[in-house]
Each structure stands twice: as C-alpha cells, then as structure tokens.
Amino acid sequence: MRAEGGNPFFDYQLPQAVIALKQGAGRLIRTETDRGVLMICDPRLTDKPYGKRIWQSLPPMRRTRGARGRRASVLPRGES
To answer: What are residue 9's phi and psi, to 5 degrees?
Structure first.
C-alpha cells in the first residue's frame, strides 16, 4: 500500500475501525424499545485528528463527557 503512495492507517485500518464501531453501535439497539449506552474510553477519539472521523460515522445520539472528560454517547430508542 505504501509503495502505491497510500497510508495503511488512514486507507485501511481507520476505515475498518469505523465500520466495526458503527456495526457495534447498531447491534446495541435493535428495536424501538431498546435502549443502550455506548461508552468509549479511548482518549484518541477526542485527542487525535482522526477521532472526529470516527465520531461522525456513528448514528445520531446525545453525547456527553463523563467525570474525567471522556465522551459518553447514549443511543436513543429506534436509532442504530
């Protein structure tokens, strides 16, 4: 990939991570009566430039920061 001018992290690993997280959030909420909390304790999602790309891939949800400044996302009913 590098030989062709690509970046393995941004061109392969990051898109794969985005897909896995989005699928995980979708599995948390399956029906309109389901509720869940998606807690991500990895500071790279707020500290690194690529974190914004990951956050934008998630379904619409209320986002908050916990006591230590980390984000907590609450999936509303019927959204996945």
So the answer is: -70, -55
Q: What is the pLDDT of residue 8?
A: 92
CA distance 73 to 58: 10
Q: Please tell me the predicted confidence (pLDDT) of residue 69.
A: 53
DSSP state at residue 78: T
Is residue 61 within 8 A of residue 79, CB to CB? The reply is: yes
Domain ranges (residues) in the chain: 2-75
What is the Cα 38 distance to its own chain's centre? Answer: 9
Distance CA 26, CA 16 (A): 15
- Amino acid letter for position 3: A
Residue 78 token pair: 């019927």
To which H or E segment does residue 41 belong? none
